[in-house]
Amino acid sequence: MLPPHRRQGQRSPPGACARRATGASARPEPGGPPKPSAPHSDGLSVPGSFQARAGLGGAGNKAPPPKKNIKKPSGASPRPPRPLRDPPGLPRSRLEERQRREQQVEGAGGRGEEEEGAPPDPTAVPRCPLPLLPVPAVPGAPMASFRIRQYQEQDFEAVRALFARGILEHAPACFRHVLRAARVRLALLAVFVAARAAAGSWLLGLGAVALALALLWVLVRSLGAEYVREALGTDLCDVPSTYLRSPDRRFWVAEEGGSVAGMVAAMPAGRGELELKRMSVSREHRGRGLARALCREVLAFARARGYGAVVLSTSVVQVAAQRLYEGQGFRRVGTSYPSLLGTLLNFRIFRYRCDLGDGDK
């Protein structure tokens, strides 16, 4: 509905638009005179109540008091580090370790505040308490505790025991290799079928296969035992007369802490060839470069004596030894079987050769 002055085509009273534009028509607050208007930056006046709400100044809008700048005394100590909280159920050893670390942190903070040029505190805890481990100068070289020397009389029992253990420990690997042979699997299948047909029972057939596997294990172990028995009865029975009475023969042992950790021998094999024999390293000292050092000792001896090549033999199950020899420059030149039983069990012997150049022999 239109206001009275707009009805029937009436015009607005003079000055009404001006009052609306300038803000003079603002309604006064009940019970008091109207608040004066303040001029705005663009020339318009703004009511005082709006100023108070908008923060443009006025009697009701006071600026906050400035913050006081509290200065700390120059000699005040820094805030101590917050101690670490121990979780419940922490073992006593770990609790003592944590307390020691807190003491190290406090000691490090105190040392940081000392003046430059001050003498170091001898009782201070070092910041890096971890010890430095010795590192070999040449990667893959044996540690300084090993010593490679020639065979002596007191090494007789240790050398024989080390060689026997090194050969017999390959029996499980040899047994698994034999089971992978096709002829052996066919033989086990034939045993099962024959026992099943004769007894008419699956259980008896499986028992016959188990008995055949036990017999096969005995045969495989007998291969290694026969090789050890032959070595202990020939050259390892009298090492000085076999390897130490000729300038072209040598027998070395690797010693650590007074005990024999490895062994290797060398003797002529043919015209211009030196054979590497009886290489063995104890299980406790493997993976530290000892076998590589013994192999290099034989190669250096062959060069010094004027041999043109070094040859050796190893079995099919000695995979680690094959990788070692191939890494030292040996290459496979032949394959053979040690006996008729080895032929039936597919147990092969690999022949390796390393050429050293034109030798004098």
Which superfamily, in CATH terms, is the homologous superfamily of the domain at 141-361? Gcn5-related N-acetyltransferase (GNAT)
Number of strand segments: 9
Spatial arrangement of strands, main beta sheet: 3-4-5-6-7-9-8
Count helical runs. Answer: 11
Helix-strand pattern: HEEHHEHHHHHEEEHEHEHE
Report Rg.
48 Å
* Mean of residue pLDDT values: 75
Profile the largest sheet. 7 strands, mixed
Morphology = extended
The portion of residues forming beta strands comes to 15-25%
- In the CATH hierarchy, the third-tier topology of the domain at 141-361 is known as Aminopeptidase
The first-to-last residue Cα distance is: 132 Å
Helical percentage: 25-40%
Which secondary-structure class do the elements indicate? Answer: alpha+beta
Summarize the structure.
Residues 1-128 are annotated as: Disordered. This protein is of the alpha+beta class.
Write up what this structure looks like.
With 361 residues, the protein is of the alpha+beta class. It has a domain at 141-361: 3-Layer(aba) Sandwich (Aminopeptidase), CATH 3.40.630.30. It contains eleven helices and nine strands. The protein has helices at residues 16-22, 48-54, 92-112, 156-168, 171-179, 182-199, 202-233, 239-243, 290-305, 319-327, 340-344; strands at residues 37-39, 45-47, 147-150, 250-256, 259-270, 273-281, 309-315, 331-336, 349-355. Strand 5 (259-270) and strand 6 form a beta hairpin. It is extended and about 75 Å long.
Give me some keywords for this one.
single chain; 361 residues; alpha+beta; Aminopeptidase; two-stranded antiparallel sheet; 11 helices; 9 strands; 16% strand; transmembrane helix; membrane; N-acetyltransferase activity; GNAT_dom
